Input
Amino acid sequence: MSPAATVEGVWRALLGRRVAALALGLAAVALLFVIDLGTGPARLSPGEVAAALLGRAFEPTTSAIVWSIRLPMAVLGLLVGAALGLSGAVVQTVLANPLASPYTLGLAGAAGFGAALAIVLDLPLPVAGELRIVLVAFLVALFAAGLLLLLGRLRDGRPEVIVLAGLAILFLFQALLSLLQYLATPEALAQIVFWLFGSLARASWSKNALLAVALSVALPALLRLAWRLSALRLGEERAAALGARPGALRLEALAWVSFLTAAAVAFAGTIGFVGLVAPHLARALVGEDQRFLLPTAALAGAFLLLAASIASRAIVPGSILPIGILTALVGVPFLLGLVLRRPSGSRP
Output
C-alpha cells in the first residue's frame, strides 16, 4: 500500500470517528431534552412527553405542563448551553489558553451590572417588565465587548493584552455591581441576587426566538472562520504564513463571542463554567479541527446545561435550585483538575 493510500485511510477513519462523535452528541442532547421535559414535581414518562409534544396527551394538564412551563425552559437551556459552549471553544482557541472562558473577558460581569442597573433604576425604555432587564444587560455587555475589542485593536489583537483587558473589565463591573447592591433596597437586592444566580425559570418563547436567531447567525459565521482558527492552533507564525492574519482573526472571532455571550447572559443570568468545561469535552471527542470542534462544543454546552437543569429539579423535590450554583459545583473541581494536571512551566 502506498504512503498516500495509508494517509487517506487514516484520514477517512478519523473523519468517521468525528462524524460519529457529532451524531452521538446530538443523540445525547435529544435524550436529555426529553428527560428534562419529564422532570419536575409532576413526573412524566418519555411516552407522556412525546404524546404531549404531538398533541395527543390524554390529560390537558400534561399538555399544559409540557408546552407552557417545561418546553420553554428546556429550549432556553439548550440554546444558552450551546451559545456558551461555542463561545468557550472559540475563546480558548484564539487566546491559546485552556483555562479561558467567555467570563474571563468580563462580559458576564458587565451583563450582571446591566441587569442590576435596570432593577435598581427606573430607566425610561421602550420595553417594560423583565424585557427591560434583558435589554439593559445586553446593551451593557455589548458596551464591554466594544471596549474589549478596542483595547485589543490598539495592541494588534495580542492574546495577553486581551486577557488582561478582560480581567480589568471584569473587576470594573464587579465593583460597580457591588456598589449597586450596597445602594439597593432590600426588595431590589433580593431580585438582583436571584438574577445573578442564573436560572432558566425566566424562559419565554420570545426570548428563545431572539436567542435562536443570534445563535443561527453566529454559528455559520464562526464556521466560516474554522480553517483559520485551526491554523491559529499551529502558532501565530505558521498561521500568518498560511494567510490567517492572527490579529484580525482574533478580534473578529471575539466580536462574535461577545455577541453570543451577551445574549446568553442577558436571557439566563450568570451561568458559569459551561463555557470552560464544554470545549474540553468536545476536544476530547473530536480533537482540534475547528470544523468539528465548534459544533461539538455547542452540543457539549447544551448537554451540560440540560443535565444541570434536570439536577436542579431532581435534587430537592418540589423546588428548583438556581442552575448557576450547580454548574459552579461541577465546574470548580473540573477547573482544579485541569490546573493540577498541567505540567509546571508549560504555556497557558
The radius of gyration is 21 Å. The chain is about 75% helix and 0% strand. The first helix runs from residue 3 to 38.
